[in-house]
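Suppose you are handed a protein chain with no further information: no name, no annotation, nothing but its sequence. What can you learn? This example shows the usual starting point.
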Amino acid sequence: MFARWQAAMRPTTQGALYYFGFFGAAAVYGPFLSVFFARRGFSGQEIGLLAAIGPLMAVLIGPVLLAFADRRGGRVRLLSLGLAGIAVALFALALPLSFAGLLCVVTALAVAGSFTGPLGDGLLARMAERHGLAFGKMRLWGSLSWAIVAAGGGWLWQQVGFWPMFPLAGLLFLATIPVALTLHEDSPGPSRLRLSWRTVASDGRIRAVIGSTFLLGLAMGSVGTFAGIYIDHLSGGQSLVGLFAAATALSELPTMHWSQRLIQRLGGPQTLMLAYALLGASYAGLIWIDQPVGLLLVGVVQGLGFGLFLPTAVRLVAVWAPAQWSATYQGILSAATWGLAPLIAGPVGGLIYDGAGPAALFLACTATTIGAVALLIGAQVTGVFGAPEPRAASPSAIPATIPLSSPGPPLPLPEAVVAEPEATTQ
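A reasonable first move is to predict its three-dimensional structure. Written in structure tokens, the prediction is:
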């Protein structure tokens, strides 16, 4: 049945349906989770600890499972299992739990989510590359569903309370599994070969992009955890929290739609710099603005930056990575941006929020984002990305494969992997 669906649907439709379902389910609870924890009486440090569990699993668990899926195949099956695991954990969150019980369930949720996001991104980014499609035009459907659901959820949860949102989100994740099963995956690499981490680290382009996304992740991790609490404190309700999330998500649509064209015109690294500048401006806006309309405008700027950042970073890594290791490279990107960085930002952000207030936290986030821009500028000046590609003469001359920068040093073929004996499993 899924094979027939796969043959009948165009790749763009598959990507749009998957992202619409995945992020629609996540938006049921995602923008309100920190507020839910705060309303239960947890301190900033406790909320920071809970927020750090997901990033920890993204560092420890995600890359291991993604590398295994690359070597042995089964990326689509693993994606489906991850979606089911998220759903089961969300059903458990609806139960009345102590802090210790909540810690266990959040850990299970984090394990399932540690590989699900990068695995879906890797599958769809490779699909876009094979068919000469714009990845951002698939991903924008996720932002659209997030905006719609978050806006409605902010009003709904204020009326009925938070508890129903967890089983509803779980059901929506389960409904996304049939779409995930229709996705196409590349053939796995030879099972006797393992990726050499020295090879990954030797590619200066990958180092620069992942290093800058790590710095940005420090800022995003803090803002993502505490901005909702700050806005809820200002407004005294969840409606503005939902509207802020919706404004941010809707503003992602135009930049996601045009991200490939901007990469073609500016180059991949320069497009990332522009995205970081927009995000930094939004974090600075949170320092000074405390009125609802102004906060929604801050959300718009933040959405424009994120909508440009995400597809650009994912597509850069997807194009530069060897095809047989696409999930592994996306796992490394995810571990740095959504794993290690928020792992640091959650507890540290909680200390800053409790000790110095939200303005000091958002100021630190602005400074960190400036550091990410500086890192990319330094890499550009030293020639890491090579000479820029010539600008396309006309829209018809724009190639299906985007010119991210000059090709750079080729990845070594035999040295890209290191032969190792098969591990014996029990």
